């Protein structure tokens, strides 16, 4: 482990973030019942105490603190629902760390996700051939003509980004290096500002200039969201929307969200993580997918834990009617698509809240995006890598290695932690609905998560030096995308930090991924209660496995 400065411990810092930062942040509208329940939340001292992830920012500490706030919200709700007034909860920061790379650690049928047979199975969702060297490495960081750096992104289809650069949409290359060099040459024909406007405004494809934290805060977008908290929570009271009591359930697990119905309209990582965590805490989740569209198969295999997945084509009247029927009985709608996309299909916050008024029962509409919900870039699509580049995270990663070029994080930290934030916000809104009634809109963004993470400060020089000595192979380059970096991290992890792979940190459940009777092993919850037992009601399933209806609905 890295040697920390005297008196520093992950658990101590996570506790400070929980009690002195999160619980005191008035923007989060945390109720007194949750603040009181925080006295019964503690951090597992058997977990590693010295920082161990090769990162300059406090990924482990913040993940543990957010898990603690999520679990504390859950405890307050469980206390109210099940009369568990004195229940305690313990947070394990080791698990909060591996949660951030959970889909890489999953095993299906005893096989790791790198197993060729599994790769073949989840590659059916790569309908646009995104994982060839040429198309995958479109999503990478490249130098520009004017001496800056730009993070290009292919999304789920690299065609537009390649056409923007005047490059072929498909090309056979011998290896990753050839792809990187060719794409880099294409990017270097243009200035960073031209690429930024051309990609986002004309081609409608994600991409972002790599700023330092100071540069980002000085942008019009940075200034527009500077005063926003980790999430925005807006209440819309209405005379037709009285308080909604928590559902009466017959339970043996006493999970706080049992009986709550959630429609999951998300893809990639952050949005699906909100829903996955809600399912862990007891919610019934129906994910709406479209089997005709591409998806991140390796992520989907893990992020569909606890969910029922149904195929709907929302560009057809039949699909839209089926979604409206689902929403009619839902408590929460999750929107993780490009800003404005669901509005165009008729299912933005205004119409969903109108459904709630017509039925006389409020709905929580939760949405997440990259840039935030105000400012000149709010409409842009974005991904974890774009947020990490734009907000300055990449330049902070460069500094730990004394590099003169930005380096992307080796893990999708902002994605997974925005997922935790989103589930906290949903719990908060549901709690307010139970007490006050009304409709709610909660909004999260990757940029707000990253800005908050940066505000917590970086690791001390002593810790950073210890991390450099511990992980020498992680001194990588600007062109090393997350896939290249994870190969290095995962190969060294069993030797560097074997405790993280302890079997006690993993759970097993029967999966529905195409092989009858198959089991999957996955990263378990970072929170352990005295009475409440967190867990999933069902394992991951393939897209379109279920009908577009709620369980027990005829």
Please give a structural write-up.
- The chain is of the alpha/beta class and 554 residues long.
- Helix content is 40%, strand content 13%.
- It is built from 23 helices and 17 strands.
- Strands 8-14-13-12-9-10-11 form a 7-stranded mixed beta sheet, sandwiched between helices.
- β15 and β16 (519-523) form a beta hairpin.
- α13 (270-280) packs across α20 (413-436).
- The longest helix is centred in the N-terminal third of the chain and has 24 residues, at 59-82.
- The termini are far apart.
- The model has no long low-confidence stretch (mean pLDDT 97).
List the keywords:
554 residues; alpha/beta; four-stranded antiparallel sheet; 23 helices
Query: Strand content of the residues, in percent?
Result: 5-15%
Distance between the termini: 55 Å
Shape: globular
Structure classification: alpha/beta
Number of strands: 17
User: Percent range for helical residues?
Assistant: 40-55%
Radius of gyration: 22 Å
How many alpha or pi helices? 23
Look at the structure and give the mean pLDDT.
Answer: 97
State the major sheet.
Answer: 7 strands, mixed
User: Which strand order do you get reading across the main beta sheet?
Assistant: 8-14-13-12-9-10-11
Low-confidence stretches: none
Topology (SSEs and partners):
Layout: H1 10-22, H2 32-37, E1 41-43, H3 59-82, E2 89-91, H4 93-98, H5 102-105, E3 107-108, E4 111-112, H6 116-122, H7 133-136, E5 140-143, E6 149-152, H8 159-164, H9 176-187, H10 192-202, E7 207-209, H11 213-218, H12 220-224, E8 232-236, E9 261-265, H13 270-280, E10 284-289, H14 297-303, E11 307-311, H15 317-328, E12 332-335, H16 341-344, H17 349-359, E13 364-369, H18 384-390, H19 393-400, H20 413-436, E14 439-445, H21 446-455, H22 461-470, H23 482-496, E15 506-510, E16 519-523, E17 527-529
Parallel strand pairs: 1-2, 9-10, 9-12, 10-11, 12-13, 13-14
Antiparallel strand pairs: 2-17, 3-4, 3-16, 5-6, 6-7, 8-14, 15-16
